[in-house]
Structure formats: structure tokens, C-alpha cells
Amino acid sequence: MAKWGQGNPHWIVEEREDGTNVNNWRWTERDATSWSKGKFQELLVGIAVENDSGRGEINELKQVEGAASCSSRKGKLIFFYQWNIKLGWKGIVKESGVKHKGLIEIPNLSEENEVDDTEVNE
To answer: pTM for the whole thing?
Structure first.
């Protein structure tokens, strides 16, 4: 532990009468849920895949449940999120012209899981 008057300059908080969180050195947290929901809509709806057999497209964000937050501790950003997402898709088989539609479900999209461990159900 540093002696009084020495040490990290961020620690001036205890010298301030108003106790201001200087440079967000202590823990701060911001809710990012509504921003994230808008970003899902922007990034996911409209994704299309096409090959010689047919074409498929995500056409609807049916359900988004969960939460996201951005925190800061000692100048380091930390992101937390957990989402259950349901997406509607439609597609067409080129040769026959048959149309299909369905649902894609991502039941636990979280910062705790590796990308390869993310479960996607069709």
C-alpha cells in the first residue's frame, strides 16, 4: 500500500469533498440492452445465403430476451451479456421453386461461452 500522498494519481477520489469517481477508476456500469437489441436488428435481419441449390434469408427478428451491460473498473472495459434470440427465415429451392420458412433459435448467447460452443437450433 502506498504512503499518503504517493501512489496512483487516480486515487485522488478520497481527497475530493464531492467523492467524484475520477476517470471512472471505481466500478461503473451502463445498461446496453436497448442498444444491443437495435444492433441485432441491424446486423442479423437481411443476411442472405445463396448457392446453386437455392437461397435463404433471415427476414425477421422474432424474439430477443436478455440483457447486456458495459462496465468499467480501473479503466478496463468489461462486457456482460446473455441473450435468447429467435430469428425467422425464408428460402427458395431454385430448381423446383418450392418456398420454405422456419425458425432459428440461439438459446444462450453469452460472453461466458466460446463461439464454437454457441448453440444454434433450427
So the answer is: 0.71
Length of the chain: 122
Amino acid letter, residue 81: Y
Strand partners, 57: 48, 90
Grid coordinates of 46 = 437481411
Helix (H, G, I), strand (E, B) or coil at 68: strand
**Position 89 in a domain:** yes
Task: Give 10-residue mean pLDDT values along the chain (122 residues).
Answer: 57 56 69 94 96 96 95 85 96 96 94 88 88
In a domain, residue 10? The reply is no
b/e per residue 82-121 (b: at least 16 CB within 10 A): ebebbbbbebbeeeeeeeeeeeeebeebeeeeeeeeeeee
